């Protein structure tokens, strides 16, 4: 079980990266990766929300929706859980880290509708059907968030280099960012055969 969990976690970070392999969470990935500090802040915010929301969604699904026979409402319930957690995170950042709060800007509330968060929470339902434990869901969610952090920080590093590079005028800004993200996705696709995930 431990080896299986570690391979699934490695897969979530590298070969099945939520952004570069599954193409979820692209909006904050492209929007917040202009500076390394804001990219890291967004990555850590996503890790927190993803891990906590997946665990809460697992609990809501297994101990509330299934016993009541309304498990078909899991998507609506998960959106409510995620929105509540993002509101709490937003209030905490506004109070304790105003600079990070202003750097993340509109992308912080967008975590609520980030399909990477909702997709990971929905995976908790799939894992529940396979008999996965609370700890398993938490570990995979954290690894998926770390994969998001890894990808967004890599793109932020590339964007710092391309901002100073001598590139054609027509490629400056968003076009070179899209090209860099595409090349990163191709590089990560090379890991897909290492682990089945």
Description of the molecule:
The structure is a single chain. The protein is mostly helical. It has a domain at 34-150. 73% of the residues lie in helices and 0% in strands. The protein has 8 helices and no strands. It has helices spanning 2-13, 26-31, 36-68, 74-96, 98-104, 115-129, 134-164, 174-189. Helix 6 packs antiparallel against helix 7. The longest helix is centred in the first third of the chain and has 33 residues, at 36-68. The chain is globular.
Task: State the gist of this model.
It contains eight helices and no strands. With 197 residues, the protein is an all-alpha fold.
Shape: globular
Low-confidence stretches: none
Q: Output the number of helix runs.
A: 8
Structural class: mainly alpha
Strand proportion: under 5%
Rg, Cα atoms, Å: 18 Å
Name its key features.
197 residues, mainly alpha
What is the element layout, followed by pairings?
Blueprint: H1 2-13, H2 26-31, H3 36-68, H4 74-96, H5 98-104, H6 115-129, H7 134-164, H8 174-189
Helix pairs in contact: 1-7, 3-4, 3-6, 3-7, 4-5, 4-6, 6-7, 7-8
